[in-house]
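hey m, so remember when u said the tokens were messed up on ur end? i reran from scratch. heres the input so u can diff it against urs
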Amino acid sequence: MVPGFAQETEWRIAPYAWIAGLDGTVGVGDRNGGDRLDGNFGQLSSNMELGGAMLYADWRRGRWSVFGDWTYVKVESNASSPLGLLYGGLDGEVKGHVVQGAAGYEIHSEGGSRVDALAGIRFYDLDGTVALQPGLLAGRRASQRKSWADGVAGLRWQARLSDHWDLGLYGDVGKGGSDFTWQAFASIGYRFSWGSIVGGWRHLYVDYDEDNLRIDAAITGPFLGAMFRF
């Protein structure tokens, strides 16, 4: 028999490591001036590295829940020079903090699964850097740091497959300072008496274009962590 979810108050806290890559466009500088640098970065599988640390915490009582998530990201990527031999290559980097808080309410529960509707805020403090490596010409580098916030709404699905195995899916969409953002998690966990070992994939897309910084990119990759329950 698949176990159901307990209805008493529960606290959870989980530190994670995120092996992430950068896929998309980063632009820095005045697009109307001569110091604008734009880079289109891909080749995701060859650019993944330990690019993030996360700390997640939540509280649940009955059908209500609240969660918070802090993420430090530092992801880099590279591409060929858009100007041939004039430069040796193009490097891009996004680093900084992403902090999210949300409240949820259980809208469906059946057996060992449940669905929560969530709404909250995601705050960003990110630094975008684009650099042309030296070639026939000297290298160029531009960097810009910005902070902004988006309102987000989404759904979270959790299922207990057995006494030990859990599955989870999460997705949200939003906008505010960003023109658009969306995020998705998929996770699988193995439960012990103290909590769970959890792994999965996280994908965070941001389309932001303000004040000499453009980030139209996804930060994406696998994560692994431990979830402690109280």
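this time it looks ok to me. The domain at 10-229 is CATH 2.40.128.90 (Lipocalin). if urs says something different then somethings off w ur setup not the seq
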